Amino acid sequence: MTETNLWRHEAYAQNVILKFLCKKILFSDQSPYQKVEVVETDYFGRVLLNDDIIMICEKDEFVYHEMIAHVPLFLHPNPENILIIGGGDGGTAREVLKHPSIKLCHMVEIDQMVVDACKLHIPQTAVSFLHPKLDLKIEDGVKFVQNSNEKYDVVLIDSTDPVGPAVPLFGDTFYKNVFNILKDDGIVVAQGESPFYNLPSQKSLMKITKKLFPISCFYHFGNMTYPGGLWSFLLASKQYHPVKDFQKSKIPQMKFQYYNPDIHIGAFATPSFLNKIIQTL
Fold first, then answer.
1. Cα(27)–Cα(37) distance, rounded to whole angstroms?
2. Strand, helix or coil for residue 142
3. Which residue in 47, 109, 222, 277 could disulfide with 57, CB within 3.0 to 4.6 Å?
4. Helices 199-212 and 172-181 meet at what angle, rounded to 10?
5. How many Å is the Cα radius of gyration of the chain?
6. What is the DSSP string of 104-133?
């Protein structure tokens, strides 16, 4: 291994690079969809990259996974049937399956290699694949949603950035199909990109969901390894408002590293620059 190979970097917005030192390459291969890599680092722990884009790291993955899962699951009064699109590292499913009301968590991941690499090298998140309530399917999530006859309480779209196989997950047709497979009080949450670097994508997502759902908004979290530090989820709901209908007293004494009732409410306080843009849509 040469000195330059010890470094991994994610190029972003054509003029930004997030660069970090890795000790060892644990896994690196090309699937039919993307390059999949797991590397070992001193500070971040093990890091999963797809096509050289950071997906998760052991150091702060709990932030993303707690926020994508617990915000909608504690908003919905009785979530039982859950669908995860993507999420091949297993972290989102791990958090979903902490909820005792869940009867079945369906997970549709397009890339078997991501699942296998995480099972082997990132058990911190992949532990969920051993859970009896998880039904994992390796197939195209876009086609699954289009053809599904199931009805779900909550759909979680744990996708990569809108490149490669994830591009259709940011489209109008996909969200129409998601709307159709949600129950009458269903909620969808999707990975919503950066308000600093991805405003065009955020505006597009908001336009699509505002046409379909009576309630559509972004909420935010901070972490170390996504460019810009501030990242968003999009929440669209057929019935429940994420703040007005949120009952913090119903949250049990579960162990969280990031999420709590105050974080839930505060995450929906939109920065003024973003709020101004959203109001024009």
1. 5
2. helix
3. 47
4. 40
5. 18
6. EEEEEES-HHHHHHHHHH-HHHHGGGG-TT
Longest dimension (CA), the chain: 56
* Residues in CB range of 124: below 8 A, 6 or more apart: 46, 58, 61, 91
pLDDT at 4: 46
Q: Taking phi first (over 0 means left), then psi (-120 to 50 degrees means alpha), and beta for anything else, what does residue 86 get?
A: left
Q: Which residues of 181-220 are buried (b: 16+ CB within 10 A; e: fewer)?
A: bbbeebbbbbbbbbbbbbeebbebbbebbeebbebbbbbb
Residue type at 223 in one-letter notation: N
The DSSP letter of residue 100 is T
245: annotated active-site residue = no
| Closest C-alpha to 202, from 146, 112, 276, 252 | 276
- Number of Cβ within 10 Å of residue 38's Cβ equals 24
Q: How many Cβ atoms are within 10 Å of 97's Cβ, its own excluded? A: 19
91: left (phi over 0), alpha (psi -120 to 50) or beta: alpha
Q: Which of 42, 158, 172, 184 is catalytic?
A: 158
Q: Tell me which amino acid residue 35 is.
A: K
The whole-number mean pLDDT for each consecutive block of 10 residues of the chain, a chain of 281 residues, reads 64 82 94 96 94 94 98 97 97 97 97 98 97 97 94 92 56 91 98 87 89 95 89 96 92 87 95 81 68
